[in-house]
Write a structure and sequence with these properties.
The protein is mainly alpha-helical. It contains eight helices and two strands; from the N terminus they run ααβαβααααα. α4 runs antiparallel to α7 and α5 crosses α7.
Length: 225
């Protein structure tokens, strides 16, 4: 990731944070005793780095740290940009039009999906090489609606891209609605938001402190006063 992103950003905009990101991610995973780490395919190597570090530490100091496993769902390992279906959908995309945000207004979400790039021809079928735009839409639809891609191909046989996009927009809006509603509810109630954040911060700190105490003990360091 560092090589790819630094090449895009250029030397002047490449930060030490980007360079150190894999190590920071490894620290987060280990500190909280994570067993399963849900990631995209592009993060697989970072979890592998974490596993290497855990293995080396446990080998030298005894079984101390939890060995994590990457959880990568094949269907959603990579979701592609709606406007550039050969590029991963990303928060750092140059254009917002191909990225679906969970807090977007429903009308904005629907518009983005209905404006998604498709491909030549009208046949709705999954073909990553020949029809990347349609393949991306079918993947998103399949995961959110719980339908197989084969079933979706049958359902939309003889129908146009417009039907697929309209129905997918409805599915995405419906899926995100509870998340969006709860988020807006918390943002409208700062006191409740602070309570939730504080409670979870305390839980996280408790787990982290236990992990650090075990590590300090194993390597012979005194705990913080």
């Amino acid at each position: 990731q560092f090589k790819d992103k630094s090449a895009k950003l250029g030397a002047d905009k490449t930060t030490v944070g980007l360079f150190a990101y894999p190590m920071l991610m490894a620290a987060d995973i280990v500190l909280y005793d994570a067993v399963a780490v849900p990631v995209g395919d592009d993060q697989r190597q970072h979890v592998e780095l974490t596993r290497d570090l855990v293995g080396r530490f446990n080998s030298r100091y005894g079984e101390t740290l939890t060995m994590p496993e990457a959880v990568i769902l094949k269907e959603t390992a990579r979701i592609y940009d709606l406007q550039s279906p050969d590029t991963k959908m990303s928060k750092t995309a140059s254009s917002d039009s191909g990225v679906v945000w969970m807090l977007d207004e429903p009308s904005v979400t629907a518009k983005k999906i209905k404006s998604a790039v498709t491909d030549a021809g009208r046949e709705i079928r999954f073909d990553r090489e020949e029809k990347p735009g349609v393949a991306n839409l079918l993947t998103i639809y399949s995961v959110l609606a719980g339908k197989s891609i084969a079933d979706l191909e049958d359902e939309y046989a003889g129908r146009g891209y417009g039907d697929l996009k309209k129905d997918l927009a409805d599915v995405v809006v419906e899926t995100f609605a509870p998340v969006r509603a709860r988020t807006l509810e918390l943002l409208d109630d700062p006191a409740e938001l602070d309570r939730v954040l504080a409670g979870n911060a305390n839980r996280a700190a408790s787990i982290a402190n236990e992990t650090l105490a075990k590590v300090y003990d194993r390597v012979g360091l005194l705990p913080k006063a």
